[in-house]
Recover the amino acids of this structure.
């Protein structure tokens, strides 16, 4: 199979090989020698049972790699039996095993002009990998350079025809792919429906019947020899006569699960009785045509066609069928939708055959019996110090990576002969990225904003444009792909479509404009060079889940996903874990213009609450920058769809992503999401409604429906609780009051506040504007409303948290030394009231301090006042005691103090920044303004930590290896503890 990859198999060569440019590595220095390396112990236990599931001590990693990254690489990718000399123990061995194989493949197949270029390719690729700038997909790390077959692909598409031989062959091929640790997808629409006759005169079984056998096979063959389920996708065309049965298969099974659960059977994920339920090992998708979608819009009938003759044998109401699809997705998250018209309109090889299916996560869409190998870049690595994206550096990385990916096809092995032939003939690649959510946050851009979408679109356009440019250059060196000649016009037409989509992107700032300019140049070169040489690859890019490899690169976010949560779970060397605030947050706040004192207060608030709502000093218009996939500021469902739509025109394949919906979402909302996805040009969409599955693990304190899904009894008795009537605590006729004059941004006013005998605030009156003016009337009404609320028991701190940080004119400087700047009159008034009537502890929770307290913090590191004792002597003793924490440190003249000496001399410098810290990877950068706190013992991943903070469930399964709760990664789930995934590798 590798012989067809010889340069002579394609178009003629026009040059002797590629000249590799040195961009990342340093001349005369090996990439490994630029890093500090350390030894670590990797010990992994099952959180549920306490059993040690893996142990390897003394592994070697750079000190810049986190404990999570080194744990996952050691357990997943190091080859050889543990405890033997054959076992890999260093990251150097792993990267060398892979990179040297790629170099040899490139040299053997004529990719490099000289030996020096091959060596430079090796060093550049090594530098990018060891510095976590990108990663190949898991099969590369599993297999390349070992005695095993050199399988490099994670994604496969199979094919099945309307014959028993083909159906049984489908079972066999799928089983071999599962055994190798990968997943596959296929379209069953060629199989005759249960409403058609066989040649013998009998009735056909239909595709849904054959799905049962394949599902049982997938449930039996543990993927890759591990305990996670196999990953597979089953697609059926919307005009298939059995489409309604297909749509309802998993929804009916979900009803069965509930009935069995209520009867006392163990129906949880991994439960003893769940295996009796069918169709649980596949993702189902309906392939809809533009004709059907127009019928849905128009409310007309739609014809279901015979598989053997193509004639319409039944008509259905299009909207009724559409409703059933959405209803099933509402009940159990299946089926998803694939948009056939859009998929095949962007198909580069239509003369060879249509695209009928996808891989399990729906990002790879290509010919039947084909495969795709993936690699993903860590976008955050390309963010410069000035918070702009380094587009030229990114493009250079893409050129090198796409070259390596194409080389891998030359030496790769494949699970079947037909897949090998198609892959070698069409050389489909899937370059993508991770950490988009973290990148946008660090740049001060909201995920669901025009600016965020513009940046994502331009980066994706640059990535794919650069990939096809390099593909055209490779075609001039080692030949175009074998199927190019018959598909040349179609391929060039799709390139022009990509270029046209790039031209209509509207940039909003300097950062995205710079990226877009380079992307525009890349697409112009794609057309020019492609016209001359053709292309080496039929496909170039996808956006994959990047589950395990995302952890390998220490990414905060996976694939195209937004940030999962603002608070992270971090493992430490030697055991234990810490709860830290996402380190992109301080950077984002500084980018948005906040001062260090404000950044500190906001980060402290996030550490405690897990969200930014009512964070002290944070402007409401900046909330969107910190929106996350889960939690109090969860993104709206259409926010996910709009981001996918922004990037889809710049991808050869599609996007692995699920649109998350709250439990309260309606069937109509799902219908609209599916419809809008079609109109916006997506190739596929999947949804998940909270609590729609019985097997979804839930934490305590949820809704009754959630508790019932856990098997907990829900009381049927309705209790009548008498709610006490609010009582108004009126002020005495004669009360203590204070009047404060103030100026905010040049506007003058007066505030009179009255208190009860116990000092509690009971009324506020504001005087602004001339008597009888609109402003004066509004302020009088506002004062009365607040005063009545206070007397009915509304806490002052509630008013303070709601009205501070409101921004409107007049705003600016004030004449109050305690509140020097104010964003509005309301902001000033309630800050002043807080200072006058709230205790120090209450104000501290809101981040409001007096001028004296802020000065004290600068001098002593504490806002709290020194507690005065009864005598001057005791006060002096207290001060001396407090001073004693600063130990004298002798530093010789002209000597530069060490970090350890600075720590010893200054108690306000973090102790874990000391030179003697044993674990450099566990030390947070100086930008971390709050000390990480010990993670609750109940939390073992970010998903569990988020549940602990918010008290709401996270819709993720438990890891079948180590028992911890996984977190979403595209259409799949990934375990932060051991790196296992629920589907795609």
């Amino acid at each position: 199979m590798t012989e067809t990859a010889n340069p002579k198999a394609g178009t003629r060569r026009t040059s002797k090989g590629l000249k590799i440019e040195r961009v990342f590595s340093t001349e005369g220095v090996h990439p490994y020698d630029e890093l500090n390396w350390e030894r670590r112990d990797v010990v992994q236990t099952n959180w549920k049972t306490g059993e040690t599931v893996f142990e390897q001590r003394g592994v070697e990693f750079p000190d810049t790699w986190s404990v999570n990254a080194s744990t996952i690489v050691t357990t997943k990718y190091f080859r050889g039996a543990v405890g033997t000399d054959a076992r890999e123990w260093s990251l150097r061995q792993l990267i060398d095993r892979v990179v040297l194989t790629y170099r040899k493949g490139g040299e053997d197949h004529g990719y490099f002009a000289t030996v020096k270029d091959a060596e430079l390719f090796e060093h550049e690729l090594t530098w990018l990998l060891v510095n976590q700038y990108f990663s190949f997909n898991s099969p590369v790390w599993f297999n390349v350079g070992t005695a095993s077959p050199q399988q490099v692909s994670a994604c496969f598409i199979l094919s099945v025809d309307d014959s028993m031989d083909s159906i049984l062959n489908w079972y066999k091929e799928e089983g071999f792919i599962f055994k190798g640790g990968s997943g596959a997808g296929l379209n069953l629409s060629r199989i005759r429906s249960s409403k058609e006759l066989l040649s013998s005169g009998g009735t056909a079984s239909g595709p849904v019947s054959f799905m049962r056998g394949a599902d049982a096979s997938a449930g039996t063959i543990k993927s890759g020899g591990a305990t996670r389920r196999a990953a597979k996708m089953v697609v059926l065309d919307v005009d298939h006569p059995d489409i309604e049965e297909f749509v309802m298969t998993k929804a009916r099974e979900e009803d069965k699960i509930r009935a069995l659960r209520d009867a006392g059977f163990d129906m949880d994920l991994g439960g003893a009785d769940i295996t009796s339920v069918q169709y649980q090992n596949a993702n189902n998708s309906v392939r809809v045509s533009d004709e059907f979608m127009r019928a849905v819009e128009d409310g007309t009938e739609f014809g279901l066609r015979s598989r053997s003759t193509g004639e319409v044998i039944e008509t259905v109401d299009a909207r009724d069928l559409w409703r059933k699809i959405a209803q099933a997705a509402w009940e159990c998250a299946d089926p998803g939708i694939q948009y056939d018209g859009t998929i095949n309109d962007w198909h580069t090889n239509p003369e060879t055959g249509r695209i009928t299916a996808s891989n399990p996560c729906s990002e790879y869409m290509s010919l039947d019996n084909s495969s795709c190998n993936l690699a993903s870049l860590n976008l955050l690595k390309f963010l410069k110090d000035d918070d702009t994206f380094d587009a030229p550096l990114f493009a250079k990385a893409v050129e090198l990576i796409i070259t390596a990916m194409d080389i891998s096809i030359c030496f790769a092995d494949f699970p079947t002969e037909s897949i090998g032939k198609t892959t070698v003939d069409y050389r489909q690649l899937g370059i993508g990225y991770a950490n988009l959510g973290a990148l946008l946050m660090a740049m001060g851009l909201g995920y669901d904003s025009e600016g965020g979408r513009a940046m994502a679109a331009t980066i994706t356009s640059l990535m794919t444009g650069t990939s096809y440019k390099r593909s055209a250059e490779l075609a001039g060196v080692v030949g175009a792909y074998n199927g190019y000649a018959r598909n040349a016009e179609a391929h060039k037409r799709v390139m022009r479509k990509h270029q046209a989509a790039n031209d209509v992107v509207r940039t909003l700032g300097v950062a995205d404009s710079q990226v877009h300019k380079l992307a525009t140049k890349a697409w112009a070169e794609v057309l020019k060079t492609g016209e001359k040489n053709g292309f080496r690859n039929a496909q170039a890019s996808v956006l994959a889940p990047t589950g395990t490899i995302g952890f390998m690169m220490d990414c905060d976010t996976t694939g195209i996903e937004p940030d999962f949560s603002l608070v992270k779970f971090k493992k430490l060397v030697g055991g234990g874990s810490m709860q830290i605030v996402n380190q992109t947050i301080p950077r984002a706040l500084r980018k948005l213009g906040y001062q260090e004192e404000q950044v500190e207060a906001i980060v402290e608030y996030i550490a405690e609450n897990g969200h930014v709502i009512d964070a002290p000093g944070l402007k409401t218009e900046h909330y969107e920058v910190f929106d996350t996939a889960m939690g109090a500021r969860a993104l709206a469902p259409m926010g996910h769809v709009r981001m996918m739509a922004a990037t889809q025109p710049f991808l050869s394949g599609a996007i692995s992503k699920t649109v998350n919906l709250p439990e309260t979402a309606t069937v109509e909302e799902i219908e609209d999401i599916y419809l809008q996805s079609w109109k916006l040009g997506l190739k596929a969409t999947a949804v998940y409604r909270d609590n729609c599955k019985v097997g979804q693990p839930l934490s305590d304190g949820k809704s009754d429906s959630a508790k019932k899904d856990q098997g907990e009894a829900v009381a049927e008795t309705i209790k009548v609780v008498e709610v006490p009537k609010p009582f108004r605590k009126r002020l005495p006729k004669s009360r203590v009051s204070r009047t404060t004059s103030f100026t905010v941004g040049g506007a003058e006013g007066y505030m009179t506040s009255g208190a009860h005998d116990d000092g509690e605030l009971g009324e506020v009156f504001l005087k602004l504007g001339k008597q009888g003016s609109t402003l004066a009337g509004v302020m009088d009404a506002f004062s009365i409303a607040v005063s009545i609320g206070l007397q009915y028991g509304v806490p002052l701190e509630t008013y303070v948290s709601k009205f501070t940080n409101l921004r409107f004119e007049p705003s600016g400087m004030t004449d109050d030394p305690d509140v020097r700047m104010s964003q509005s009159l309301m902001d000033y008034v309630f800050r002043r009231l807080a200072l006058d009537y709230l205790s120090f502890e209450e104000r501290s929770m809101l981040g409001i301090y007096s001028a004296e307290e802020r000065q004290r913090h600068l001098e002593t590191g504490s806002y709290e006042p020194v507690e005065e004792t009864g005598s001057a002597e005791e006060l002096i003793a207290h001060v001396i005691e407090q001073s004693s924490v600063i130990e004298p440190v002798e530093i010789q003249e002209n000597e530069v103090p060490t970090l350890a000496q600075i720590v010893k001399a200054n108690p306000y410098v973090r102790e874990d920044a000391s030179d003697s810290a044993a674990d450099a990877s566990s030390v947070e950068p100086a930008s971390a303004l709050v000390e990480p706190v010990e993670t609750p013992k109940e939390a073992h991943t970010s998903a569990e930590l988020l549940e602990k903070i918010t008290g709401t469930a996270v819709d993720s399964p438990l890891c079948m290896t180590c028992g911890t709760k996984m977190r979403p990664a595209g259409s799949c789930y990934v375990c932060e503890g051991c790196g296992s995934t629920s589907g795609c590798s």
